[in-house]
Design a protein that fits this description.
Layout (H helix, E strand, L loop, with lengths): L5 E2 L1 E4 L2 E4 L5 E6 L6 E7 L2 H15 L8 H17 L1 H12 L3 H23 L7 E3 L4 E8 L2 E5 L5 H15 L2 E5 L9 H10 L6 E3 L4 H8 L6 E5 L2 H14 L3 E4 L5 E4 L5 H11 L13 E5 L3 H13 L19 H16 L3 E4 L16 E4 L6 H4 L6 E7 L2 H9 L8 E3 L3 H10 L6 E2 L17 E2 L12 E8 L7
Parallel strand pairs: 1-5, 8-9, 8-11, 9-10, 11-12, 13-14, 13-18, 14-17, 16-17, 18-19
Antiparallel strand pairs: 2-3, 4-5, 6-7, 7-21, 12-20, 15-16
Bound molecules: nicotinamide-adenine-dinucleotide (NAD).
Nicotinamide-adenine-dinucleotide (NAD) binds next to helix 7 and helix 8.
InterPro entries: Ald_DH/histidinol_DH (IPR016161), Ald_DH_C (IPR016163), Ald_DH_CS_GLU (IPR029510), Ald_DH_N (IPR016162), Aldehyde_DH_dom (IPR015590)
Family: Belongs to the aldehyde dehydrogenase family.
Keywords: Oxidoreductase
Length: 486
Amino acid sequence: MDISRDRDTFFVGGTWLPASAASNTTEVLEAATGKVLGSAALAGSAEVDAAVSAAREALGGPWGASSGAERAGAMRAMATSLQAGGKEIAALVSRENGMPRRLSLGANGFFPSIALNYYAGLAEHLDDEDLRPGALSHVSVRREPIGVVAAVVPWNYPMGLAAMKIAPALAAGCSVVLKPPPETALDAYAWADAALQAGLPAGVLNVIPGGRDAGAALVAHPGVDKVAFTGSTAAGRAIGEICGRLLRPVTLELGGKSAAIVTDDADLDAFVAALPDICLPNNGQTCHATTRILAPASRYAEIVDAVTDTVRGLQVGDPLEKTTQIGPLVSAAQRSRVLGYIETGKSGGARLTTGGGVPADHSLGWFIEPTVFADVDNAMTIAREEIFGPVLCVLSYADDDEAIAIANDSDYGLGGTVWTADPERGAALASRMRTGSVGINHYALDVVGPFGGVKASGLGRELGPEGLAPYLALKSVYRPPVRADR
Ligand code: NAD
């Protein structure tokens, strides 16, 4: 796999399309140092048009006539290519966005091949006949590709989030235009390299890194049949409005402000051991991170102390170092935003127990000290808005009913966890949380389980068999019923 650091072409129609005179170039900066890591061309409207045309043309070619089994073969070949380059891809993403390498290895290095192989398995059964004897007809239900997919992804888990769209889209027989963001433009080319290595027909997958304008042009393009978006709630609302007007199917995976309910019988050691991975994954730059920790009043001081000690002890450093638990944020802008939230927390009356600033020994890059606020009221801004950095809030509750009320008193509903020694209590609390996913003494996305949100966290689901459905158009073919008297 060619992990080049300078990309002045786009991957369109199976070849490298040189950037037009009108397109811009961005420097991709290394999150840990702020130094230039490479450069990438950013798509303008000409590249969006070219990519959508190529994707539409591909549907009229061999890909449009392919069987599920044939597509599965191509997807498995792509998976092999991505898996072979997995370590390099993961390291590149860590350098782009600051993600600690162990997480990046799983999420960006190997998850794409896991998703491709999983959906390849589902593709093999898509052509199975689904014949339903009815009262007035024999109905044959055909599952056809929905068409050209616009896949718009953010920088925080760029390869994994692209895989959650590309794998089901290819399984369904769709073609895809992937629009990665400028911050992580470089890793996205691994998809192009894998498509070439796997011999994917021209135009089935197109890669055009670009900014918001390119995303907006792609989403509204007349040649697009379906939009799959992951990103902020603000952008999701704008995209949802456009798709509503166009009556264009759309899935929206948006922000979160998830709660971890720690009960009075919880194993606190187990909770704080899991805290880095569940409350602060990817330095807090994770949509489903459980950043509101709900502690029973009877154990509040003990839990604040344990959370504070754990967070204070986290290893901050170069995301490529094996021992690093907290890397830098993706950009200077993101760091300013998070520092602004920390000031809001302080001025709003929350009690800072650790962190709160820029670590003294990290003058380069965009590091922030992992931070904990205690005495947080759920009405405070830091408890309501998605901070997207290494900042935790600890809130107090009186009983299980109040814990549920606080957990559900949020504009968002994406993740969540319950920590308890009692499995029945855990299941009961989990069932009362208004959210798209919840973990009991654990939390880990899995390719077999549908993932997505309720409320301002989005519309629709990715992953699992449910994640394939948005890429399929169902067609009922009616035939005369077989008469019993014949
Ligand atoms: P963002 O919304 O600014 O950008 C995401 C992507 O959309 C980028 O490619 C961007 O160029 C593009 N974009 C932005 N505005 C657009 C518009 N109006 N039309 C079309 N495209 C547009 O988000 P971000 O800051 O890059 O990412 C962080 C956000 O993503 C957080 O809010 C996080 O919670 C969310 N996120 C959600 C999930 C999930 O599955 N629910 C997963 C990861 C991240």
